[in-house]
Amino acid sequence: MPELAHATTRLALLGGDRAVPKDSVGGTWPLVTTADEQAVLRVLREGPLNAASPGEREVGGLERAWAQATGTRHCVAVASGTAALHLALRGCGIGPGDEVIVPALTMNATAHAVCAAGATPVFADVDPDTYTLDPRSAAAVCGPRTAALLPVHLHGLPADMRALDELAGRRGVPVVEDAAQAHGAQLDGRRVGALGKAGCFSLHPHKNLPSCGEGGLITTDDDSLHEQLVRLRNFGELEPTGARSYIAHRAALNARITPMAAAFTRSQLARFDDYARRREPGIRRFLNRLAQLPGLRVPQVPAGRTHAWHILRLMPDPEAFGLGPEHRCALRAALHRILRAEGVPVSRYQVAPLAAQPAFRPPGASPADAADQVDALLPVTVAVVDGSLCLQRRHLDPAAGPLLQSYADAFEKVWQNLELVRRMATSRSAPGWREALRQG
Ligand SMILES: Cc1ncc(COP(=O)(O)O)c(C=O)c1O
Predict the structure, then answer these.
(1) What's one GO MF term for it (predicted)?
(2) Is the CB of residue 193 below 6 angstroms from any atom belonging to ligand 1?
């Protein structure tokens, strides 16, 4: 066990000093600069305010910049990450009667996009080391109606695209990447978004590449998919070369991004690589310290991949606390209480596997049957959802290094009190995902 940098091992929950001082600085995300404000003001003052207006240039500028950043031929900017996924699937011809393989551990938007395209999400388990779609589990749930794979580069780590590509190749179906959380992450030197038939990004303000509201980006090397995407985001109309035709060539919707959001993201993009480079050492130092704590699994980065560190997921092993797997939820809840009292803003990211949620249950399946299926088929997702804690947003500030060091102090302090943690976890039970579903 490393020496404690902090003066006391008495937990803040029991009246000790907080490991993370209340007046700690850093940890703001997104960072909005004068340049970002001016970019938005320029659009507000000079217009056009709508992406379909003649002369609009922010959206095209953002698309060219992101295509270049990802090394793809095309980029289409849209209204949100969910819209990006929905349009990409429809552009690939996915529709009613089709099944799309998605990981059971992801933001619900991944599955919503499949449903919005008229297809059915089929859930596969995630890998216990990377939390991304497990290719073996994906292969096991593929069937005659499988029409696409939709891996998620969850928390910023590229999914195992080599194995998934191979699976998709065998089945003759496309891979659409959900890269909503993984801007800039790489696999074998190629950036996500350039790894599948289409790559889908979110520009939600909390993402690594934020907009000032909502937005999404779709990347592709495929010229005809690009043409479809342009139509699908704008009422099925052809890209106007002059005046708009208002002729709908396919059923579509309005999924345009606003020029203000595009201008803001373009301005952020100018600093994107610099921020990524500057946040990396602080996050690595933090995770290296946590990796010394017995029984705490920190994010893994397999060879050939880089991590965008969008979310940091931490998985305590009950055994290290002298506990059995039945105490997984109680251990997570105890650590949650103790760490938050120390000033570490740990949170949960996903509280129930998607496959058990009312929106995505197989038609006709009772809640109890769906839950039993989840336990049987998605054991890793269940363990991760019930047993892990996450850090979100604050570490994205490139100046968050010292703050992260104080978080590491807090973890080390907690690990000096393992017996107390153990007692808390055994004296008080905590709700697992089944209860979360009942209460939600
Ligand atoms: C993995 C994943 N997919 C899709 C989305 C949807 O993106 P948006 O919120 O921009 O619609 C998100 C956003 O949180 C996400 O995390």
Answers:
(1) pyridoxal phosphate binding
(2) no
Q: Which residues are catalytic?
A: 207
Which pLDDT belongs to residue 35? Answer: 98
pLDDT digits (tens, 9 = 90+) for 12-28: 999 999 999 999 999 99
Looking at residue 7, its pLDDT comes to: 47
CA of 204, closest atom in ligand 1: 10
Check whether residue 181 and residue 58 sit in a common domain.
yes
Q: How many angstroms separate the Cα of 343 from the Cα of each of 20, 290, 347, 421, 434?
A: 5, 16, 12, 17, 29
Instruction: Please give the structure tokens belonging to residue 428.
Output: 């008080």
Residues 257, 339, single domain; the answer is: no
To test the pocket of ligand 1, the residue of 82, 152, 257 to mutate (highest count of ligand atoms within 8 Å of its CB) is 82
Residue 401 is assigned to a structural domain of this protein: yes
Instruction: Judge if the beta carbon of residue 110 lies within 6 A of ligand 1.
Output: yes
- Pick from 290, 382, 289: nearest CA to 328: 382
Pairwise CA distance, residues 410 & 341, whole Å: 10
Same domain, 319 and 216: no
204 assigned to some structural domain: yes
DSSP calls for 383-397: HHHHH-EEEESGGGS
Is 370 within 8 Å of 356 (Cβ atoms)?
yes
Among 221, 195, 94, 85, CA closest to 148? 94
328 is a domain residue: yes
Percent of the residues in the chain that have a pLDDT greater than 90, as a whole number: 93
Q: Which two tokens stand for residue 302?
A: 């397999």
Structural domain that includes position 129: 34-268
pLDDT at residue 343 in the model: 98
